């Protein structure tokens, strides 16, 4: 067996959580391979809504085992907030959740470093979710990090204290101090106490060699679905650097984030919205800072699942989508939020980038460049409510044409279409 992959092709929040939940019954194992609690994956069913930050989106299916892979970084406080919410809803996540011992821990001081670095950037802020993502991955690569497997070491407390000490030297030099710093409305010290309590609770969970588990499962014929977080345009290498996250959000990240060989990557499903959104700072070529953008934001309820911030909205960017498809080797496309475009008579899609009047073939290195011009194609809207559509063949012709235009441009089929947040508001061609 091979590992299939679901990942985002835009700037995150494409609807990955919903689609992983919809696809989960077909897989034995669902595994998150990167990112941390900067992610917010929304799942809606039976009139209930859940937002997951660290736990894979297969958790609602009792028969799927869910793995938090080694490429993920974990804040135990946030993890247990999620676990407690699932328990309140009558679930027993301890039964179908496994945690990689090689996953790195986010310390409270990582979050403090994130805040210090962002504050210092002044007008050039990344717009980070301030969950400690950048500093934790930095410590991982600087070989200072602490991993989940370390929690059972007798020297664990000292490891944390030493790293905390190291962090404090930096944050103090940025003018931050522990006594005035707050995290999620708590004093730093209260958050830290909760962090240690959560570490104790982590000991009751199954912490495993996840790469061994996944490879053994594949060789025994079990199916695995890898769940991405963020999106390709936020990838640390290929996104609009430095306005990116700190992990490999692309399909290559599955190999390092779960410990599987490139030979074992199967179908790559790429998720994109029928338009574009971005939350946080950084260039966004098709952004609509006008009433049309507001209409997309209101219709799509485009407010961050993790931070509640309004998302910036714009038309679909086909050169960016094509670039993302290339980077990930996407086999099958999943288009989300088609319903949000229902009220539009006319739609636009970006079809080319030009620099100083010349067509650019590759994706531009500098998206914020002054000389960058965009070419748009106008398409008919479908102006039809989609709630009673039951199959791909029943779609309004203008929506079929919109999809066909995208399919022809990127040379890939849209096999799945989502037209509402609920699990059931999904159509599949095959
Ligand atoms: P993720 O981070 O990629 O999992 O996406 P988020 O959960 O952050 O954001 C997607 C938002 O759109 C959530 O509020 C979903 O409930 C919602 N959503 C997902 N699919 C659809 C859809 O087809 N139509 C509409 N209107 N909302 C959707
Ligand atoms: P999901 O998995 C959308 C954005 C932040 C910021 C930049 C860096 O829900 O799609 P970080 O906290 O990583 O230091 O922030 O990346 N960002 C996301 N935007 N969806 C996400 O995750 C995101 N995770 C991070 O807004 O611009
Ligand atoms: Mg999200």
Please describe the topology of this protein.
Blueprint: E1 3-8, H1 16-23, E2 29-32, E3 41-45, E4 48-52, E5 65-68, E6 73-74, H2 76-88, E7 97-100, E8 104-105, H3 108-120, H4 133-141, H5 156-173, E9 182-183, E10 186-187, H6 188-202, E11 206-208, H7 210-219, E12 224-227, H8 252-258, E13 265-273, E14 276-278, H9 291-299, E15 312-314, E16 316-317, H10 318-328, E17 332-336, E18 346-355, E19 358-359, E20 372-380, H11 397-410, E21 414-418, E22 426-428
Parallel strand pairs: 1-12, 1-13, 2-5, 2-12, 5-7, 6-8, 7-11, 13-17, 16-18, 17-21
Antiparallel strand pairs: 3-4, 9-10, 14-15, 18-19, 18-20, 21-22
Helix pairs in contact: 2-6, 3-4, 3-5
Bound molecules: guanosine-5'-diphosphate, 6-O-phosphoryl inosine monophosphate and magnesium ion.
